[in-house]
Every structure is written in C-alpha cells, then in structure tokens.
Amino acid sequence: MTDHSKRHWVQLVALSTLAAAALVACGKKEEPAPVAAPAPAKPEPLKVAFAYVGPVGDGGWSFAHDNARKALEAEFGDKIQTSFVESVPEGADAERVFRDLAAQGNKIVLGTSFGYMEPMIKVAAEFKDVKFEHATGYKTAENLRTYDSRTYEGAYMAGVIAGGMTKSNTLGVVASVPIPEVIRNINSFTLGAQSVNPKVKTRVVWVNNWFDPPKETEAATSLINGGADVLMQNTDSSAVLQTADKLGKRGFGWDSDMTAYGPKAHLGSAVINWGPYYKKTVADALAGSWTTGQAWWGVKEGAIDLVSIADDVPAELKQKVDAVKAGLKDGSFAIWKGPILDQSGKELLAKDVVADDAFLGGIKFYVKGVEGKLPN
C-alpha cells in the first residue's frame, strides 16, 4: 500500500470515529440545569413586651427590669424582639396598655408591679394565644404565671451591715405600700440587724407609692431627724440614699446598684437580677414548653445579691454576709427560723421552726424591734 493510500485510509477511520461520536452525542438526552432549592423562610422573631411601673431611669426597680430586658436581647439576638412601656400607672391605665401590647402581636407580655394583677388577669382572658407574666402577684391563669424575687434575702443581708454600722441603734426604712412583700422586707432587715446587734430598733415611714422622689426625700429626712443613722428603702428611686448622703448618714441601694447616687452614704446595694428568670421565660416560649405556675427566686437562683459593700465596713460583717449568702445558696441557712416574735412579744414561729412560703406570703405584722403601728 502506498503512503498516499495509507493516509487516505487513516482519514476514513478518523472520519468514521467522529461520525460515530456525533451519533452517540445526538442520541444522549440533555440533562436540565439543577434548580437551587428555595431558602427556608426565616421565622418571625418572638415579640416580648414589658410594662414598667416607673421610668427606666429610676435607678432602681424599673431600671433592674430593663437591664434584664437588654440581657435578653444579647442572649437571643434576632430570635426575639423586645419593647417596653414605662411609667404605667396601676389600675385602668395598665389594662389599656396590656390590651394594646397583646393586640400589637406580642406573644409574651410582662407586667412588673403588684398593682397590675387584676388588669392582667382580665386581659389574659381575652388573649388566650398570649403568654402573660406578672411580677409579685399571686393569681394565675392558663396563660398567666407569676414570678417574684426573694427581696427579703437582700434586706436581711443589708440589715447585718446596718446593725454593725449604726451608732444610734436606730434604723430607718422608707416604705412604699403596706403589702406582705414590703412588710416582709422591713422585718427581714430588722432581723438581720438584730443578728449582730440585739439593741437595734427600726422606724418606718410609709409614702404609699412605689416611685415618688419628693415624698421619699421627705420621709428619709423625717427618719434622720428622729434619730435614724442608717436608712433602707422599699421604694423605687434613689432619693433615700441621696438624702442620707446629703445629711451625713448612711444608707443602702435597693433593687439596683446605687453607689453612684450617694457614694459617701452607700453601705451596699441589695440588688435584683431578673435576667435568669426572663431568659428561662423566653427559652420556654421558644421551645414550646412554657406552662403556668408561680416562681419565687432568690440567692439560690442568682436573682438576689448584696453588692458594692463599702470599704469601711469591718471584715467580720462582710464575712457574716458571705456566710449568710452561702447558707441561702445551699439551703443550710433560713432567715425566718423560730423563735420569732411579733412587736407585742407574741411567738409566731416556735424555736427551730422554719417558715414556709405560705407563711412568708401572708406576713401582715411587725417583728419585735420594729416601732409604730402597721397601716391597714
């Protein structure tokens, strides 16, 4: 075979191979381009709303709640959306606010004052798909639960410091409204003081409001003029500590750390950390495990503490507070353990008997050492 013939034969074979390949290609079914699956819709954030009885800048009660609200946002990010309404009066105005918050699509509504109880019960019955939470109350419903902090534990620890620091043996308390919560705090403050100084007596002035700085100032001044040299309050502003600072006496912050409001007077602050409870509330709602009930959290749960104790408080008093705190945390210490007497000397708790929560929740008496008549 000549070279020309060989080249011709090779060309024929190549052409035949290309043709065969083309036929195969023509017979192959063309695959459609893959279509990307649509991204799942992002769930709507859980809307959580707060109603505060005072302004968020009160430095105390409402300020503590708002700090916890901010902690929620940091914890859950875009899974939730929070809002608040401040300075909501107790009564009819509260009912209107709760109804409006529920109508706006909030699925958790938190009312942060005792006087919100009846309005919240009423509105909860109208919005069954909303979870309502009421601070310091005692009435529940299928979609309403209550929560509280054991503020009396902070009051007792403050009392330990007060009993050791007083020079006049007279303590003063500016009190808000005469409900068991507040009376319990006055008594616990006194019991704490008596644990280190049996000579202590406590005087009380009631202002019949949670947040009223002018009245709180007037009450604090009256107590100081009457001989009290260490003050505590169960009101929501920093006015009592500021008055003590101005008049050269000592005092405590309440609900939040109030050191900055009266640095010369400040002995310590009995603070509430609502963060742990609010985180549980939101986590329960997101997981679908929220149920009604009642919660009462204290030192054990990280909800109550005495912080920023002054440098001039003796080491033995600080150690006593630390021991109380440790005992409350592990359950080895009880504040309300008999014998406990009322101011007339009547025994209310026998020796070694520990008060249960039902007893604590119904306190309507002064313990021995508290002066004056308890208002109706």
UniProtKB/TrEMBL annotation:
InterPro entries noted in UniProt: ABC-Purine-Binding, PnrA-like, TAT_signal
Keyword tRNA processing applies: no
Domain ABC transporter substrate-binding protein PnrA-like positions: 47-318
Source taxon at top rank: Bacteria
Any single Gene Ontology cellular-component annotation: plasma membrane
Entry keyword set: Signal
A Pfam family recorded for this sequence: Bmp
Name this polypeptide is given: BMP family ABC transporter substrate-binding protein
